[in-house]
Amino acid sequence: MVINSSVMERILAKVDEIPPLPAVVIKAIKTIDDPKSSSSDVAKIISQDEGLTAKVLKLANSAYYGFPRSITTLSEAITVLGYNTVKSLIYAAAAHGHMSGELKGYALDRGELWRHSLGVAIVSREIAKKVKHRDIEQAFVAGLLHDIGKIVLNQFVRFGFTLIVKKVEVERVPFNQAEREILGFDHTDIGGRIAEKWNLPPELVDAIYHHHSPEESKVSPKLTSIVHVANSLCLMLGWGIGADGLLYPLSDFALQNLGIDNLDDLMSASADALKQDDLFSALE
After folding, report:
1. With bands split at pLDDT 50, 70 and 90, how would you rate the model's confidence at 280?
2. 8 pLDDT exceeds 80?
3. 134-163 CB burial, b ≥16 within 10 A, e <16
4. Pick the CATH number of 5-19+100-283 from 1.10.3210.10, 1.20.1260.10, 1.10.10.2910, 3.60.150.10
5. In terms of CB atoms within 10 Å, which end of the chain has fewer, N or C?
6. Please, how many CA atoms are within 13 Å of residue 280, restricted to the half-sphere of its CB?
């Protein structure tokens, strides 16, 4: 192993530099989660952010939802979309700025991490519907944020790339395992730490930590399995694939846990879901 303690310290310092979620995001999510709140209460908070307001209205009027008339007010948009969808959109808006850049360490061009993450979110939602997961939008958010750790680990992977890829090719280990052996952390470790810093629910933290190893999930193995399978399908479909797509093993535990016995049908449904270009546009 090539673990350097000073590198590990620098990685953790970079996690500390990640800013907290914006105050409007935290307040909006708390209001959505309050059973006594109304759509007008949520609208008052979201209206403080012009960009977020525009995204909510754009999504409500997208062809994906197909409402027969134009939605013109924020309160109405929140009502027709539903709280859970609005919450997903809020997380997406908060994450977009972090995830839209180029990640040379993972051989991802500008926008490719975001494209892959949003793709995994959409496929996670489709799988959650299929397996009747209790919270479909939670699966969307978990899929969206599963690779958030890459934004920190990118620069360290970049400088250790040759060693990491050599370990993958020679020892035939998954990219994230090679990350951990070379750097002391992999992107799931860092993603979990960012999720904890953002005070995300334990189920989301767990899914981010263990999306490469769902059999290790202790909090929500079903949610973690959903994200794992969605990530695998997106990689198989070439959806935002980077260097870490090398030797990505699909967990039998995840498939069994979800009761999935026909991956071809699920892949076909996932490919169809990823063609929803208007949804991608609305979430940009």
Report:
1. low
2. no
3. eebbbbbbbbbbbbbbbbbbbebbeebbee
4. 1.10.3210.10
5. N
6. 16
